[in-house]
Structures are given as C-alpha cells and as structure tokens.
Write a structure and sequence with these properties.
Triger factor/SurA peptide-binding fold, Chitinase A, domain 3, four-stranded antiparallel β-sheet
Amino acid sequence: MLSFLAFATLLKPAIAGTKASIVAVVNGVAISSIDLQNKVKLLIFTTGKKDNPENFLQYRQEALEMLIDEALKIQAGVSIKPSSLENAENTARSFFENIYGGEILTATERLRAAGIQISTALDQIKADIIWADVLTTKFKRQFSQIETLAKSEQKRLMNDLSAPQYKISEIVLMPIPSRPLEQTRKLAEQLKESIDQGADFNAIAAQYSMSASSKNGGNIGWVQAKRLPADIQNVIENGLLSKKNIVSVKSNDFFYIFKLEGLRNLGFNDPVLDRVSITRAVISLPENLSDREIEKQISKFKIETANINSCSKLKRFHETYGSNVASKINNVVIEQLENSFKELVLGLKVGEISDVIHTYDNELVVFMICDRRKMDADIPSLEKLKEAEFNKLYSVLSLRYLMRLRRTASIELKM
C-alpha cells in the first residue's frame, strides 16, 4: 500500500494490460485495485477455491476489509515507532515461510506459481507483528501482569503433571460491524469446509484468525484440557473419539476451528514422552510378489526371528541380509514416531521381539526396544508461557482497539 501522493506517481500498470485504480483511502493512504486483486487471489489460494470471477466477487469485500485493517494496524504502529515496519521485516519473513512453504516448493515459489505478489502475504504478517507492539504500548497496565500470570501457570503445571493435554492449532473468528454474527458463522462453516477439502489450515489461520497466534499460522502447541472452556473440551474430545482432526465450535460470541495434532492422556507423565533406543531387522522383498508369496515370506521371517531375545542378536541377524538400512535407532522420543509405529512401540516391553511388519516400501521389519527411559517433565519455558498469556489478552483487547481506530479513522471507499 502507498501514500496517496506516492500512489498517484506510480499509477502505471505493474503488469501489462492491468489498469490500476484506487479502491479505498485510509487516513490518506491509498489501497489500490492491484492490492485488492492480490489479496483476493491470496484468499482464494488459501481456501483452495478456483480463481474465477464468481469467487473473486465472493471474496472481494472480505479482502477489502482485511486491507483496511492492515492499513490501520501499520499506521498505528508507525505513529508510535517510525521504524516498526522495517523492524518487522525479518520476523515476518520467518513466519511467511513457516505458513506458506510446502514440502517441495518454498513459500515464495508457491505464491508466485499462483500469480500472487509476495508482498501481499508479507504485509499482512507484518501488520500483525506491529499490531502486537501497538497493543502492548496502549495497554501497558494489562500486559504488565503477563510475567506474574506465566509464573503462576508454571507453578500450577508443576503441581499437576498428569493432567491430559491436547496439541492444537486454532482459527478464531469474532463478529465485527462489517460482518455480523450470522455472517461470521457462515464464514466459519465455509473455512472449515475448505480445510476438510484439503485447504491449508495454517495459511487460512494467517489470513482470517483474529487471535495473536495468526502470525504463526494458528499454532498453539500443547495445552491442558481442563484449562479450556467446557464446550471446547467436549468438541475436541468428540473429535478425538471420532478420529476427526478438524473440529469447530461457537463459544460465547467467538467461532473456533481447531486442528487436533496430538493427545497426551497423562500429560507430562504420558508414556509417549519416554525415550527409547530400538534395533530392527529389515529385508527388502522382490517386486511383483503375489499376496500368497508375501505371506510365505512373512511366516519365514517370523520363524527366523521368534527366538531372538537381545538387541545384539537382532542386529547380527539384520546384517546377515546385507541391508543398507541402519539397524539401530538411538534415543528417540516415542511421540515423534509415525503413528502406527508409535502404537506398536507403546505396546512392547524392553527385549521383546515385535510382530513382522510389511511396510509401504515393500520391506519386512521386526524390531526390539533395547532401552526405555522416562524423562523429567518438560515444562514449557517461562517465555513460552508468557506468549500463551499474551495471546489470551490479545484476543480480548485486539478487536476492541481496532474498532476504536475504525470509528475515528477517515476511510473512503472508491469502489
């Protein structure tokens, strides 16, 4: 976004055939049609919709409201500290890659492939970073209590180590004057539907969530179940029971969408936090074996390993097959293992041989736990707990102050 004067001097098409115009002016700062076009394209991209005229019209107003809010947040930050926009650059780029980066393409490559300017996503993240500083400056008294609250929470966690925990990410929506309660409910339903159909949860959280966690793609991490409101607990518990990893709920006037990423039934004392060393024997099967031939190989492998009773013997057996796969896996936290493998490890005793596993890579594997150690409780650091307390306060104060800025701002719509 540009100041009105700067925009007027640059009112030349950035792309051949694209005519730029002003769609809104916020306290003298212009929002261009190119800004709006890119924001709409980013919303369409993050929700997994088709980039067509119908969806452009559907997302246009929402995109404009977001751009107005971003302008107000950045203006508020720069008025307090002129260097705030520049200071937010490096942090924003780090969050940008975490939110939009894929397994193959970087964040920049993904957005460019979709025809979206990188600055569109970066500006939104920078606005949220700057906004956090604005709130801490404007509400010093409230935020001054964060360290005290975090220390109290740390002490409480130490005294309740076995309380169940959820690992979650969140999207938080609140009604605003331009999007009242019923429209916000419909938006929450649309976003959940998009996520269920494969849209990126973290990218949607970065664009839509009104929580402080939005700048980190909605990531919350581990929370004690009983610290959540009862209605949210119930929805998450039902989601876990039905093996759904995306759930939504309305709590008071807030609409939440949660991504469920983990469960520790016994909190910091849960067996999934044990560290283990594992030895395995692996053989690769020839390609194109029939199901009957595979069953024969499994039976043979099971007989050969049935009487192995130590990790050293299992390692020697593994080496007789000449496999290039390492036999020993040292010092790994059970929770970090792939889900099906994790369940098998949890059910084994030290020195007990596992059943034969036929992997997707067409290998047969048996393994044995050589060593298992329960670790000291890994209580979150004071800084992490301060961040959690900050996020709670942010959710309460952010919308209130943003609406105050909107009421006093000069906002001219040109479309």
